[in-house]
Amino acid sequence: MEYRKIKDEDDDHDDVASDLESLKGKSHAASSNIALVGAGSNERTNWKRKGVVTCALTILTSSQAILIVWSKRAGKYEYSVTTANFLVETLKCALSLLALTRIWKNEGVTDDNRLSTTYDEVKVFPIPAALYLFKNLLQYYIFAYVDAPGYQILKNLNIISTGVLYRIILKRKLSEIQWAGFILLCCGCTTAQLNSNSDRVLQTSLPGWTMAIVMALLSGFAGVYTEAIIKKRPSRNINVQNFWLYVFGMAFNAVAIVIQDFDAVANKGFFHGYSFITVLMILNHALSGIAVSMVMKYADNIVKVYSTSVAMLLTAVVSVFLFNFHLSLAFFLGSTVVSVSVYLHSAGKLRL
């Protein structure tokens, strides 16, 4: 009897142990399922975020040239382009300050995110601010010589200027793939501008090409110089650095208003000639910078390549309906070559 009692107790212990093991197995399986569900949910969220950022950047990039051309009336700007640029810089400055306010609320004020600064830190910002001023003014006047799709093609010349200036100023090496991409980019831009319906070989005249090259040099030098400034103090919050850059941009644009459009602004008013399209154009220019920052944070370089390529074709298609643009085979082939060259530049950068 005693033996049977002990055996029964052992059997009960074995049953309890097996039940515990079974429960552990179920809990591990449940945990694994929860982890898989969580990973899948995060992956879907990242894809959605990338999709939203890609669409936003593509729409903003493709509509930039269209809105500038559309803001014209009878072939000229009735508003002051200097006041428009001033408002763009003001809006970007306000957006940077808003982002900083959120950071201060969540993380508090630190040495790296405070607005107070020193002369040595801010004395370098006037140079890129001045370069961006001239580049942004030129982008209005270039449309006297090129159409919106042509502008989107020629704008890619800043890839060449940026790459060469990276090599000269920052001493960065360029891969053979990137140099091949530069050559293809020149060929693509030239092919897209071929004109079979006129005595002129190229659609864009010499002044248009000259302005496009000058804009590419200004944009490239300003971008490389700004990156050098940012990386000089990498721990400094990017919104603080952007804020001071935009403050100097506002100051230089205010000087441009006084020099170029003082009489018109004084007699007709600051917002004379503004329309709904003009307001959309200003919002577009301001948000484009924010979209690029979001791409760098939430997506990758392939997204920029995709957006640039799609924007060229999207601009051309929309221009067919808005401005009676003729979508020629030369333009299609040229834009395709430009897209491939942009991809090669990106691929070469990833291999370095």
UniProtKB/TrEMBL annotation:
Compartment(s) of residence: Membrane
Domain of life from the UniProt record: Eukaryota
Key words of the record: Membrane, Transmembrane, Transmembrane helix
Residue intervals passing through the bilayer: 51-70, 177-194, 206-230, 242-259, 271-293, 305-323
Stretches the record annotates as Disordered: 1-24
GO MF annotations in UniProt: pyrimidine nucleotide-sugar transmembrane transporter activity
Record field: compositional bias (Acidic residues): 9-18
The protein, known as: CMP-sialic acid transporter 4 isoform X2
Organism expressing this protein natively: Raphanus sativus (Radish)
